[in-house]
Amino acid sequence: MVNLRKKKPAKPIPETQYLRFKYRLEELSNEWAERNLTIFLLDIATGYRLQDIVDLTITNIKEAISNGYFEIQEKKQYNAWKSYMKRNPRSLKKEPEKRRHDIVPQLETVLLKYIRGKKKSEYAFPSQKGSGSRYIAAKSYSDILKEVAEDKEINLKNITGHSLRKTYARRLWEETKDLEYVRIALGHLSIEVTKKYLGLDDDVKENAAKIAGRKL
Fold it and tell me: Which CATH number fits domain 15-176: 3.40.50.720, 1.10.287.90, 3.30.70.1450, 1.10.443.10?
């Protein structure tokens, strides 16, 4: 029998649980705590998709620190562009621009500490299955976050690797209440996409139910 249930989208990590989640991630990661925590902080601080972070090398990070920003060709947009060009070989549609994101001092401190003593040729976030020759898969890291979320100390639902980008987006929205600002930061094509991404319609429905139910 076909399972028709829709996959629930990833949710951001609630601010009320953020610190406990971060500390629990560190505690449950054992000897991989530094790697796992650095990925977590880098993703939260920049809003890149996990797949665009896990394959960074030490050289990539050093160059980014030297420049003061990351500039990454996001795989989702690039692959979509390649597929489109394959279907429409005469199209003049331009290759998507790399997404640039500044490195704030707090993140720079984290990254400098992390790369200290590591070889330039190394993957920054190696797989547990290899000796630096392979990087951790985005799905494997997502599974780590799920494990933390399901821990009895945390008990959160619908947390995946994409929750880090969602947390980044939600923080921008809560701080600015400016959809266009968030849209540009995420690289979305329309505000409607950003609204859906933030789950704002769900928030309205939930709040409407609470407001309407107060006077029953």
Answer: 1.10.443.10
